[in-house]
Write a structure and sequence with these properties.
Helices cover about 20% and strands about 30% of the residues. It is built from two helices and eight strands. The chain has a six-stranded mixed beta sheet, with helices on one face. A two-stranded antiparallel sheet has the order 1-2. Helix 1 crosses helix 2. The longest helix is centred in the middle third of the chain and has 17 residues.
Length: about 140
Amino acid sequence: MTMWAWQRGIYLKRMRKEVHHPAGSPVAGPYSPAVSADDLIFTAGQVPLDPETGKLVEGDFKARVRQTLDNVSKVLQTTGSSLDQAVKVTVFLTDLSRFTELNEVFPDYFPEEPPARSAVQVSKLPLDADIEIECIAVRKKE
């Protein structure tokens, strides 16, 4: 339900908050995989977990980037959005020297009008992953 608030002589629309959980996804802690506020979607950070095994993808870094983006995509789909609706992506890396490899994968997922993006190096990520990605997107218009 959308609510309106009266402030300084005008009505302001308050955003409606909704929590989204992809079907069959495990809850890893006290957070939501995605939250929408009207037409904006905010995802929690996703790591390269293989949904079939529940384990981190090993081997090739680019494969882990792809799995992470696939996981972000799956979360966005539960909200009525998709990667092509992404407006901002934040990438956390434990080794910023992998930035070039990251850039080689992104055009496969964002071929046109890529979102704004930040990439930062961090000392540690959940499950000892070397990449985590979070996203802000808009809901697809019907």
